[in-house]
Specification:
It is globular and about 50 Å long. The longest helix is centred in the middle third of the chain and has 18 residues. The chain has 330 residues and is α+β, with helices and mostly antiparallel strands. The protein folds into two domains: 138 residues, Diaminopimelate Epimerase, Chain A, domain 1; 165 residues, Diaminopimelate Epimerase, Chain A, domain 1. It is 19% helix and 39% strand.
Length: 330
Amino acid sequence: MILSTVEMHTGGEPTRIIVDGWPAFSGRTLLDKRREAKERFDHLRRGLMLEPRGHDGMYGALLVEPDHPEADLAVLFMHNEGYSTMCGHATIALVRWAVESGRVTRSMPETIVRLQCPCGLVVARVAADGTVHFESVPAFAYARDRIAPTATWGPVAVDIAYGGAFYAILPADSIGLDLKTSPMRSIVDAGEEITRAASRAVAIDHPDEPDLAFLYGTILTDGGDGANGRPSRNICVFAGRQVDRSPTGSGVTARMALMRTKHQAHLGEERLFESCTGAQFSGRLLRDAPAVGPRKASIVEVGGRAYVTGESRFRFDADDPLREGFSLTG
């Protein structure tokens, strides 16, 4: 078996776009395909994401047939541990590639790409210079100031917000960390422990789709709001111990919805967010969205850039004992 990919990065966070060679799905809907990928094809995810073809920080985007009537493309997101419901950095990479490869016909001055993600339809604009802005699914604050008991720091206060995936969000200095000076291992340890603690402490529910109802990761922030041209740094730890090198598009969406709930940002305002690599995404509160269950929701626009790093053809030889990948940290 041979799988063909395009390699890209967004702020240093990789996206391995799988364009050919994946077996056909029998599922009708995108969420059906996501479940089928877990049940039938997870060995391919592991083989592409983990060593020797990948690494513990690899991220993937699998193109599949859309079932949404307005979608140009559909995608399943994957990483070292499983399958995401939404991914902003991969969306930025995928839609730029879709336009520049001719999968979606280019228009001037910008091209609209409608991408069906597991969380819903995401509408992106790709400018002539490759800059991408996308409107994500309705975002909302799910819970505020909830206590997550931890072994290391005792009771930790977190907010939980949804931007296509659920995140626990807290300032790093509330547990004695600094996102610029603390060792990355300490930040990763904190993110993993807090995700587990918050998952136990707060029941997650999504009223529209049970498959979306889980805590995806933890976002540690510098406590800023990204206003006045001063980016707020955040680091997202997800999939156990994976670190997002980008500012995390779905996390930016969640942070903007949370800041609106806290009256720290208002409709029409744009904020800047920075990752551990210094890469920046913009976030703008565009408009109200229909409520998600009992919670007020917002549409957030996220902006950023991605770059092509190469193309690959990966073999899966039947007699290779490591063909399904391995991890030295998992």
